[in-house]
Amino acid sequence: TEEDLESIKLRTNLKDGKLTGIGKNKNLIVLQVEALQNFVIDLNYNNQEITPNLNRLMNDKSSVYYDKYYQLIGRGNTSDAEFVSHNSLHPSLEEPSYTKYENNTFYGLPWLLRDQGYTVWAMHGYKKEFWNREKAYVSQGFQRFISEEDYKFEKTIGFGIRDEDFFKQNIEYLKELDSIDNNPFYAFIITLTSHSPFNIPEEYQMLKIKPEHEGTILGNYLQSIHYADKEIGKFIEDLKNEGLYKDTVIAIYGDHFAIQSGDNEVDNMMTELLGHKYDYDSMMNIPLIIHVPGEEIQETISTVGSPMDFYPTILNIMGYKNEKGLMLGRDLTNYEGKNYVFPQTYLLKGSFISEDTMFVMARDGLFDHSKAYDLNTREEIDKNKFRSMYDKIIEEINNSDFILKKNLLKYYIENNGEVDLETLTETEILKD
Ligand code: GP9
């Protein structure tokens, strides 16, 4: 409705606040790390750090760490994490968003930074057709996609290119990108090695795994993400050595879970490791770290959020306004209200996670069969208190679907923010 659109417009119009503009005119590197869950951050495992480099980065005076950040993906897994992070819209639940909305008009982070004079490239060492990235990246606003065929490598791990080969060559690509027209750049970099099922060859296994975790998904994952962390550490060092660090904002986040909750044996093992119940909320918890060299900003921000909130959050730091498009998320650094995350895969549509509650929609879609939990006590609580929240969530997801299905941004941008909703052609009837 017109009213919904007005409220989304208001939300898109970010207010200045903490950290506003500290990244202005700087380069931006966003590193999306395959299957990086939050529980490994700062974890002491068998007297070892799993992610020493990310820990150091997170604890640095120039970093902000968002510790209540949850995945938000649809059918397109990793590619939906990209889609949601860049566009602040919900992913499609019918098909991967990059396929379904390949030809839509967008005004996400890549486009906005281009309008600010940035050169915008994406780098990922896998096949360019996978997840329809090559085609979708055009409408997403990327000017160049460096994909598997652009990297030289002989050895592979699991899915393909090793992070070490990937990062090393990215340094060269970044130098090239940095030299273009004296403009700042935005590089979106997606890693691959820490992909499930995480069984990396022995020569890369550097951790001492407890006997009871040997050969389990947990043991394998720890080795794999430890390897990824090591390569991320080297990459940051290389950025420093090559003069690419000082003027660059670096954001790092995980795309989605590694260890799926729901299996008793796995849940028990994880619960024992973490000292608290491993459930969908801890499974979906991914880290977000934003690092702005030279700034003293160290803080852990515990506002609940998701990739939906990435675009407004990074925009505030970069100091630009979204004057053309629409964003459904919040600037997590400055938002003072209670925020909610609406995962729609693994938890069904209508479910939510807030700072104190996890509401789990029933498989049969009936509100009466749904369950609500207090996240502090893990006790089941009265779900009926959340009926109106549930209705709001459905409405918000449907609004996002409407924007995508009607290609609303096309008309919105063409008409400078004015659009007559009634004239939008009928495409499909939206279902709950
Ligand atoms: C492949 C990589 C993995 O390009 O992004 O995707 P996933 O299987 O995690 O969705």
TrEMBL record:
Membrane topology, record value: Multi-pass membrane protein
Subcellular location, record wording: Cell membrane
Domain Sulfatase N-terminal: 26-320
Keywords: Cell membrane, Membrane, Transmembrane, Transmembrane helix
Major subcellular site: membrane
Pathway recorded for this protein: Cell wall biogenesis; lipoteichoic acid biosynthesis
Range within the parent protein: 193 to 624 of 835
Superkingdom of origin: Bacteria
Species annotation: Tissierella carlieri
Name this protein carries in UniProt: Sulfatase-like hydrolase/transferase
